[in-house]
Amino acid sequence: MPFSGPIVVGHDGSDFADQALRWALALAERAHLPVIIVRAWTMRTAPKPKTQEFGYVPPASDFADAVRERLEEATREILAEHPDVEVTLRVERGQPATVIVEASEGASLLVVGPRGLGGFKGLMLGSVSEHAVGNASCPVVVVRGDDDPAQAEPEA
User: What is the DSSP letter of 109?
Assistant: First the structure.
């Protein structure tokens, strides 16, 4: 299959997302493709920015910066394993399923884990991964890794 665009990886901070990222980076290294790591966020899911104080709600850009910092921290060690791969981090405000499908436009491949941080024990495929498989603009790889998604507990 010819690849012309980047490999896009959805990353929500879960162990499954880390496994998907490792898989995508290994492929990108062999195929000489860039990787875009995408994290969706909402005001409900974003970490509190450093500028937030009692009585002051920072602008959305401060929340985006806090999400980016968290994504950088979460992926730093994994990215160090593949220093020759060109990687771009992208944080987008919106619902994860929508953001990940929009990010797939122009990509060679979309890579996701089977489940994210939420959900219910017993699910083999989470709602975001399922939505990506059915709606992405490119082929989708769901990386299961060594863990059984049906046995995983939702992370707090």
Answer: E
